[in-house]
Amino acid sequence: MRFARSKRGLRLKTVDSCFQDLKESRLVEDTFTIDEVSEVLNGLQAVVHSEVESELINTAYTNV
Predict the structure, then answer these.
(1) Which of 14, 18, 21, 31 has the fewest CB atoms within 10 Å, counting from its CB?
(2) What is the pLDDT of residue 59?
(3) CA Rg, the chain, in Å?
(4) What is the DSSP-derived secondary structure letter of residue 32?
(5) Rounded distance, CA 49 to CA 38, Å?
(6) CA torsion sign, 35 to 39 to 44 to 46?
(7) Which of 36, 15, 34, 14 lies closest to 25 in space, CA to CA?
(8) Torsion angle in degrees (nearest 10) through CA of 9, 14, 19, 20
(9) Are 44 and 23 in contact (CB under 8 A)?
(10) pLDDT at residue 57, as a whole number
(11) Strand, helix or coil at 5?
(12) What angle is formed at CA 10 by the lines to CA 4 and CA 11, rounded to 5 degrees?
C-alpha cells in the first residue's frame, strides 16, 4: 500500500515538473503577459493533477 502511494506521489511530481518546465521555458512570448499565462497553466495543472491522482487511486484499488 505504501509502495503504491509513493509511486502515485512520484508520478504526480513528474506531472507537476512538466508544467513547471513549460512555464520556465515557453513563457517568453509578448502576446500574453507571463502572469496571464501562468494563471491559466496553474489552473490547468490543478485540474490535471486531481484527475491523474483520481485515476491512479482507482488503479491502485484495482490492482489490490
Answers:
(1) 31
(2) 77
(3) 15
(4) S
(5) 16
(6) positive
(7) 34
(8) 90
(9) no
(10) 82
(11) helix
(12) 90
pLDDT tens, residue order, the chain (64 aa): 677 677 778 888 888 887 888 788 777 777 788 888 888 888 888 888 888 888 788 777 766 5
Determine the Cα–Cα distance for residues 17 and 29; give it in Å rounded to an integer. 21
Identify the three-state secondary structure at position 62: helix
Q: Which amino acid, 22?
A: L
For 29, the grid coordinates are 512570448
Instruction: Tell me phi and psi for residue 28, to 5 degrees.
Output: -120, 0
3-state DSSP assignment of residue 30:
coil
Only one residue has cell 488503479, namely 59
pLDDT of residue 63: 64
